[in-house]
Amino acid sequence: MNNNLFTYCLRLGDNGLILSHRIAEYCSAGPQLEEDLAITNVGLDLLGQAESFLKYAADIKGGGTTEDDLAFKRKEKEYLCVHLTEIPNIDYAYIMARQFLMDVYNYYLFQKLTASKDTVIAGISAKAIKEITYHLSRSADWIVRLGQGTDESHLRIQTAFNDLWMFTDELFETDEIEKDLANKGIGVDSSSLKEDWKNKTKEIFSQAGLQTPTIEKHSLAYGKFGSHTEYLGFLLAEMQHIPLLYPDAKW
Amino acid sequence: MMEDSKKLEEFQAKIDADVKIEPKDWMPEKYRQNLIRQISQHAHSEIIGMQPEGNWLTRAPSLRSKKILMAKIQDEAGHGLYLYCAAETLGVKREQFLKWLHDGVAKYSSVFNYPTLSWADIGAIGWLVDGAAIVNQVSLQGTSYGPYSRAMVKICKEESFHQRQGYEIIVNLANGTKEQKQMAQDALDRWWWPSIMMFGPHDADSAHSNQSLKWKIKRESNDELRQRYIDKTIHQGEHLGLTFPDENLKWNDKTKHYDYSPIDWDEFWNVVKGNGPGNKARLAHHTKAHNDGAWVREAAIAFQEKQKLKSKIA
Ligand SMILES: [Fe+2]
Ligand SMILES: [Fe+2]
């Protein structure tokens, strides 16, 4: 089995899996019906992307492994999502800030992945980039709207970004697995996305009248390498509940 | 007065000729009030109904079922939106409808006050609750008020998918392990009677029914619709080896319909009056979401105003 490719697909799949789960938690709690609809759309896209990557990972692993086995039956340390996706739905400002930061990242990542020499990854990414382009335009609109809306919305969205900023470092962290796949033209070295990401967030922040928080190096052990926030365990306990309780059942 | 009775005659003639009534047309005040009540109640049901299903969205046991359930709940939000829009054509704003909901003035379908206690309940809701809703909504496609009728046509296109996804969950469970089959039976036991009650009181006891039928707001009576639902559902359950919780349920060769036991109207009215297991929690959830979102809606309006001002200056 190609271990590097397997790990890489888990990272891509888990980001979508966990972020879409957070969106699922927000079901029927949006500020208005139009937002319930729109945010669920995003959640559905992310869940679909996760399913595709986990299915590919399951195929690589072989031995009858399914995408559901990977989604529901791994240990916490075996999930490889970034910390940002694990952050709870504190309020609408945090939800949109989290989404925007991930959308910008995914936008540049998947643009590159559409050119992957691995045809499965290229195929999934070609579909995903269309979805992500819409996600980004929606979340960027909201960042501007909240930044320029009322004093309260400005304060709330700025606070959310200030709090979440420490988790953005991880997005550009790279390792031997990524470097290997990047060299082969299959994957992307995350550190190569940083310039574009910084410029885009700066552009939207300036439209929104928001301050870019200062980057400080944090002493975090990262999610993409299997070390998580305290939040993830609870999320998994809920998500894995039925498959673990009825290990023999099919659904 | 003379003019009014003439208008009323013309109005009834239009109804009798199956001409749709449109928002700008003259209509009796009672017709308007009746529609405001019914359409908003229908809209509230769509959005409150998101909660019992959302309760299991984070515990859906497979990626596929999670995707389907998420899409289904999203559809219901869309249905709510269509219906609020249709109701707004009668001169009341959505904010007001929501206030009536939160104040307990407006009702929603009582069935959503029952708890979802297992994954099988998600199947039962799709199979039975959406299954009952479809019967009602197919009939309402022929309602006399144009915007309501068109909303129903759009909604019906999506509803059959809802019923199928629910039934598919039940089929899987009924063919699964012993525990899964028990789960399906337990869900049927709990959801069967509430789904039958969704059609409301018997025709003889229904406060709004006669006038509604005359104005073609409703096209068929509660009991007719209820019977159609029961008749189409029984074989779907028996086919899977599930038992309906009604010992008097049997095919009547004379009437060509299923007979069933008397409905427990005490329970029905008790839940309608707010004493169901979930009434308080459902309303509290919706009210909280709405209040928590106030600053977001205010920001969106403020931003829009600023943009307008900018484009005026420019
Ligand atoms: Fe619906
Ligand atoms: Fe439905």
Based on CA atoms alone, the radius of gyration of chain B comes out at 21 Å
Chain pair forming the biggest interface: A-B, 48 and 48 residues
Strand segment tally of chain A: 0
- The CATH topology annotation of chain A reads as Ferritin
Q: What level of helicity do the residues of chain A show? A: 55-70%
Gap from first CA to last CA of chain A: 28 Å
Q: List segments of chain B where confidence is low: pLDDT < 50 over at least 5 consecutive residues.
A: none
Residue windows where pLDDT falls under 50 for at least 5 positions of chain A: none
CATH-wise, what's the superfamily of the largest domain in chain B? Answer: Ferritin, core subunit, four-helix bundle
What profile does the largest beta sheet of chain A have? none
Query: How many discrete domains of chain B?
Result: 2
CATH class of chain A: Mainly Alpha
Note down, in words, how this protein is organized.
Chain A starts with a helix and ends in a 6-residue tail after the last helix. Helices cover 65% and strands 0% of the residues of chain A. In chain A, α4 packs across α6 (151-164). With 251 residues, chain A is mostly helical. By secondary structure, chain B is an all-alpha fold. Chain B has 2 domains: 2-276, Ferritin, core subunit, four-helix bundle (Ferritin, Up-down Bundle), CATH 1.20.1260.10; 278-314. Helix content of chain B is 69%, strand content 2%. Chain B is globular, with a radius of gyration of 21 Å. The N and C termini of chain B lie far apart (54 Å). The model of chain B has no long low-confidence stretch (mean pLDDT 96). Chains A and B meet through α1, α2, α3, α5 and α6 of A and α3, α4, α12 and α13 of B. The complex binds fe (ii) ion (FE2) (2 copies). Residues 76, 130, 133, 159, 162 of chain B line the site of one fe (ii) ion.
